[in-house]
Write a structure and sequence with these properties.
This protein is mainly α and 93 residues long. Helix content is 55%, strand content 11%. The protein has one domain: Arc Repressor Mutant, subunit A. The termini are far apart.
Length: 93
């Protein structure tokens, strides 16, 4: 029972932080993708799909989430200087 109470406290805190940052309008998958991009150097769609956390989401769902984040100008996509085929996703501060 204590674990569930603690889990709810964490959810409430997370909700507060997301509202303060303006991310409360994003879907859960969009928030997860954004957090992954912010946390991972040289993040790209392939890296997202290979992460164990995202195994529950289809490639289409991840691409859609990236599309929303790009269209809202929350993230940007730039060609990698090391590999011209790779597109690096980064958070727009």
């Amino acid at each position: 029972m204590k674990a569930l109470e603690k889990l709810f406290e964490l959810r409430r805190s997370l909700d507060t932080y997301e509202r303060e940052m303006g991310f409360d309008k994003l879907s859960e998958v969009e928030k997860s993708v954004l957090e992954f991009i912010m946390h991972t150097k040289d993040a790209n769609i392939t890296a997202i799909t290979k992460d164990r956390y995202f195994a529950k989401y289809s490639l289409s769902t991840i691409k859609r989430a990236v599309g929303v984040l790009l269209s809202e100008s929350i993230i940007s996509a730039n060609q990698s200087s090391a590999d011209k085929r790779a597109v690096i996703l980064s958070y727009n501060k």
